[in-house]
Amino acid sequence: MEFLILPERTKGERTYGITSIADFGIPLGQIEDYLIDYHQFIDIAKIGIGSAYVTPNLQKKVDLYNRFNIKPYCGGTLFEKCYMQNKLDDYTDSLKRLGIEWIEISNGTVDISLQTRISLIHKFKPNFNVIAEVGSKDNEQEMRRSDWEEEINLLLAAGCKYVITEGRDSGTAGIYSKNGVVKKDIIECISKNVDISKIIFEAPTAKHQMFFINQFGANVNLGNIKLQDVLTLEAQRLGLRSETLFMEERTCNLS
After folding, report:
1. Which of 6, 147, 156, 171 is most buried (most C-beta within 10 Å)?
2. CATH number, position 74
3. Confidence at 248, pLDDT banded by 50, 70, 90
4. pLDDT digits over 64-75, tens only?
5. Signal sequence span per UniProt (predicted)?
6. d(Cα 72, Cα 101) in Å, to the nearest integer?
């Protein structure tokens, strides 16, 4: 069907309007079934937490994502575990052997200084596309609005392709309160002072996704999306759900 007037979506090799799914152990056959129909709606696949280390047939999973032009990478928890044990060289060697070209640098659980993370970005960016994450998984920890803005901009300036705003797969930390409410003051600060096209907002629930779509338009970058929710999210982006039906045809600030 092609007769409605809908918001214009980015297509192909997107640099914004990104959908990043979270793979917390999806079986290979199930992934392939979804990707055959819906691969055009997915840009990035995070193999969540540290699950890549124990995933059966990990090489086949990586190859499957690559075959559908979806960029796989390992969750930040695995990076933090390797950092704790001084195994980052082994980790990056493994990523290269697997054909994973993206790496996440985070401090969601382990306290890694901003300066150390920036140094690691400089170390990794010649060989990888680097994604960094800002915010803690501990919902008792609060960052000032100005710290969110400063940290994101410094990580981008260091060479990150994107910065993820922490939200967890539950939507109860980072940019969300412990009861799942969006911290709108933080989002407002970020949106005024950061290039939104370089931010991936973790938005695991439909409620969170629709907030960001209504706030920033169809081409906002969203992460921690469940594979089974990909088609619904695309419909939401196009104003084909009640909560986004009257969405203004805005686009992200790409300047």
Report:
1. 171
2. 3.20.20.70
3. low
4. 999 999 999 999
5. none
6. 8
